[in-house]
Amino acid sequence: MSESSICQARATVMIYDDGGKKWIPAGTGPQSFSRVQIYHNPGTNAFRVVGRKMQTDQQVVINCPIVKGLKYNQATPNFHQWRDARQVWGLNFGSKEDAALFANGMLHALEVLNSMPDSGYSTLPRPVSNGPSPEELEQQRRLEQQRLEQQERERQERERQEWERLERERMERERLERERQAASGQNRRLWNLYQEPVSYLLFLPLNKYLLNHCSKSTIHFSGHTVHMLNCPKSLLCTS
Questions:
Q1: Start-to-end Cα distance in the chain
Q2: Highest mean pLDDT: which of 128-132, 168-172, 225-229?
């Protein structure tokens, strides 16, 4: 029976360089994402990991059998690793969802393999590569945690700036509305004043006289009886 893919995820395939104590991209050319799949052969109940770059040439960057006894280490939410007889493999996933999907497929494969009897089945050979030390794994976890915290701070800062922008716009709208209402009220007052029956407009030469008699509601001027408006010092009057 032919192989079938039981899961696939998007990840950068890495190899641990024991000499340089660092991770390097698998394959040739610039680092890029690959489509990493777990294949299952129902006839032999064998599993393997195959990764091809998501480019035109679809370069194969990993073709690694999954064997009984393999230790799959989820070092961070986005970075998982394991070792085979030759080297240590690492997958830097494009998202937590990709990482979780692939981890479920890998753990399922290991569960099937570990449930098989030992006779006639090759177990994982002794690795020739030491792989990253516990201190290096801890450093990876710290770096991943710092990256996530930085992303959270940036998200909160964007939300704060957006809230301040909306608040400024709201205050500006309220200010414009107050000015509009004030102008509308002033126009209404002027219109009402225009509708009042006005007989005389007392000009500037009479100001002093009016101020001296502002407490009176009726004054006599040039043979006319003049009734003051409500405001004692108003220049408008009716006869």
A1: 116
A2: 168-172
